[in-house]
Each structure stands twice: as structure tokens, then as C-alpha cells.
């Protein structure tokens, strides 16, 4: 039930009635809009597309989550990264120029329909004489909805640049927007993205332009390749299209 404001007339009968309503509300609260609670069953939100839990009371917005892409060598060709010593006895994948690897990303059920996706690379280097410079990454992607709705279309992609740190092992994140509602030729259409869709991706180290004060130029280590997406923080009611009925 919704709770009405307390009575202006503080006569005992009206106030007793309102207090009973308050007691009922505290047991089974219902709030204006698409949110409610019933007993001990927890918070309930309408199943409608785009509804969910936001953050920031001043400027409410859906928070960001990650779709994680671990670096695992699937590439069987010559241009594959090398699993080698990174720090102490830890190993990770090191990329030379033109090394590439392949990734797959599944759109989870908490994705906010109509919001853009951002690909980002977690990387660092082990050099001790780095003075600056950049590395250039290249992505290639293709997206298709699931449940026999789409065929994977021709891929799109472009390059994007990350700035090297002068600090050895510094954890860097370089990001690029890969979808938009009015996409460029290098992006997928945000309006086509749907939960349970799949992004097939390739990431290549296009060039290594790190600068050093002496010695050889260190090749970067790529630790993860992820996608930032905005989340409604709940799933969909249905497990197949239409997900929101």
C-alpha cells in the first residue's frame, strides 16, 4: 500500500486510523513508481526495459561494470604474444608489434539497453629506462544478437593510443568507445545491442613507440582486455527475447 500524509486534523479517531495505515505500510511498503516491497520477499522492481538501481542521489545514473576478457593465447599463428617472465617469478603475456589475440564478450542480463560500450586494455611494461612515448592498439569487432535473431556482420575497428608511464610495472588502462547510437564506421550500433549477444574481438599491438634513455625498447605486457558497460544491477525477467515482459 501507499502511505498517505498524516491527517491535518489531529482528532484521535483519524490519527488512530492513520497509525494503523502506517503500521501496514511498514510491513508491506509500496513506493510511488516502479519499486515496491512485500513482506520479507525483498525489493521488487518492474520488469520494464531500462529500469534498475542507480547510484548518486544528486545525479542518478546507472553504474559501470566490466565484462572481463582474460588474455589466453588462442592465436596459433606467428603473431601471437609470448608468455614470459613479468616480475619476480610471475609470468604474463608480452606483445611485440603486430602480435594479436582474440577475445569473446557475452552481454550480461544487467546491461542497460541503449547505453554505449567501451573497450579498454590493462597493460604495463617492465622497462627501467622508459622516458615516455606511446603504444598503439588496434581492435576489430563483430556483434550479433542471440536466439536466431542475427548473423555476425562484417567486422569494424580502428586504432587507439595509450601513453606509456616512466614507472616500471605501472598499471595503465587505455580505453576506446566501440559503440554509439550514431556509430562511426569504426563502431557498432548501440541500438542493436541486446543481452545474450556476443562480441567477437581481435586486439593487435599496432606499434610500440615507447621511448627510452638507453638500451632496448621494452615490449608491453597486456594483462586484461575488458569492456565497460552500464548496469541496471538486476537481471531480466525472461531468459530469452522479449527479455522484459
Q: What does this 3D model show about the protein?
A:
With 245 residues, the chain is mostly beta strands. The protein folds into two domains: 12-45, no CATH class; 64-230, Galactose-binding domain-like (Jelly Rolls, Sandwich). The protein contains one helix and 14 strands, in the order αββββββββββββββ. The strands form five sheets. The chain has a four-stranded antiparallel β-sheet with strand order 3-14-7-10, with no helix packed on it. Strand 1 (35-37) and strand 2 (43-45) form a beta hairpin. The chain starts with 11 loop residues before the first helix and ends in a 15-residue tail after the last strand. The model has no long low-confidence stretch (mean pLDDT 89).
General shape: elongated
Helix content: under 10%
Largest sheet: 4 strands, antiparallel
* Strand fraction: 35-45%
What is the succession of H and E elements? HEEEEEEEEEEEEEE
What is the total number of structural domains? 2
Chain-averaged pLDDT? 89
- CATH fold call of the largest domain: Jelly Rolls
Q: What is the CATH class name of the largest domain?
A: Mainly Beta
CATH homology group of the largest domain = Galactose-binding domain-like
Number of strands: 14
Strand order of the largest sheet: 3-14-7-10
Oligomer: single chain
Write a concise synopsis of the structure shown.
The chain has 245 residues and is mainly beta.
